[in-house]
Write a structure and sequence with these properties.
Blueprint (H helix, E strand, L loop, with lengths): L7 H12 L4 E7 H5 L14 E8 L3 H12 L8 H17 L5 E5 L13 H7 L4 E3 L17 E3 L8 E12 L16 H13 L18 H8 L2 H10 L15 H4 L6
This protein binds cobalamin (B12).
The site of cobalamin has 29 residues, from helix 5, strand 5, strand 6 and helix 6.
Length: 266
């Protein structure tokens, strides 16, 4: 389809058709909504009226995309298997739905040469209306004195049981001025709820309690929990016990302390 005939509805619809069966959700946004809350060094280098789409993984992604991806292709090289799977799904959807189109694809784990993230996933999720981004400044009369508290997005259906994986920017697709910025559902409206959320996310994120701040419609399966609770070195071992990696291959030696402390986002 030529760029001129693409619009918010058909881009979102085509991506949804490709990606929802794989356990992803897609939400459109205008680059200007994102850029207007950020300082110049973090803004996207595209016109304010261009279309972007943020891609979230839901609990179903693990069984609907990741395990079949491992079964069919296996992972190649040392990079994170989930990241490889997400990249495969996103690039396949883009080349299938929009052949020849100018689409800039950024992943949550990518950094710019300045070491800043290529896009701020939580800000994108909030301005698209996908998931409210609760930040320190959303708590009145903060109990944390000078401490910096990291913010967290809450999805209205999945609570914290999701991840923000990618941002696609359609440079040549213009979002009309009549398109209104959606407000994300405020599912943690009270001061006490927000304090509990930010404290769980900052101090006890390993116990995953922040994910249940609202009652989710679906959570990660036991298999998925086992996978994301494991450290990277153990994840390769788990994949091997599930039959996905050849036993004799040369797996990365990720036993050094630095690497086993590495956090991969699930
Ligand atoms: C670096 C990083 C980390 C670092 C630092 C954390 C941080 N927030 O800075 C470390 C390694 C500590 C980390 C840890 C974790 N992380 Co992390 N991390 C990231 C990463 C890659 C970048 C975040 C970042 O650097 N932000 C920069 C700071 C400056 O941005 P900011 O605080 O949001 O500030 C901006 C906004 O306030 C904005 N702004 C200003 N005004 C306004 C107004 C409005 C309305 C809005 C919307 C925005 C806005 O401007 C500011 C910048 O100038 C993101 C993925 C991504 N690409 O975004 C994941 C991400 C934030 N992490 C995530 C998770 C889940 C985790 C962990 C739980 C690990 C895990 N295995 O699951 C832990 C727990 C956190 C903790 N307690 O320490 C998830 C959060 C999902 C969610 N529901 O929100 C993300 C989004 C990854 C993902 N794929 O989903 N992480």
């Amino acid at each position: 389809m030529a760029a001129a005939s693409l619009n918010v509805e058909n881009v979102t619809g085509l991506l949804q058709d490709c990606l929802s069966k794989l356990g992803f959700e897609v939400y459109p946004l205008k680059v200007g909504w994102y850029n207007s809350v950020l300082s110049p060094s973090l803004r996207l280098p595209f016109p304010d009226d261009s279309l972007a789409v943020v891609v979230l993984s839901t609990p179903a992604m693990f069984e609907q995309a990741f395990l079949p991806f491992m079964e069919q292709r296996g992972c190649q090289g040392l990079s994170d298997p989930i990241d490889q799977c997400v990249k495969h799904c996103a690039t396949s959807a883009v080349s299938q739905c929009f052949p020849g189109q100018n689409v800039d694809v950024r992943y949550d784990y990518e950094l710019l040469p300045s070491r800043k993230p290529k896009f701020l996933a939580q800000t994108a999720a909030h301005v698209s209306g996908a998931a409210f981004y609760y930040q320190q400044s959303d708590v009145t009369d903060q109990p944390w004195a000078e401490k910096k508290m990291f913010g967290v997005c809450v999805h209205p259906r999945f609570g914290g049981w999701f991840a923000i994986r990618a941002l696609l920017v359609f440079e040549d697709v213009v979002v009309g001025s009549e398109v209104v910025q959606p407000v994300p559902p405020d599912c943690v409206p009270t001061r006490e709820g927000r304090i509990q959320l930010l404290e769980s996310f900052n101090f006890h994120w390993q116990d995953w309690s922040y994910r249940n701040i609202i009652c989710p419609v679906q959570t990660y399966s036991q298999k998925q929990r086992d996978y994301f609770s494991a450290r990277p070195a153990e994840r390769f071992a788990l994949l091997r016990t599930w039959g996905f990696l050849p036993k004799e291959d040369h797996q990365p030696d990720i036993s050094s302390d630095a690497q086993s402390e590495m956090i991969t986002h699930g």
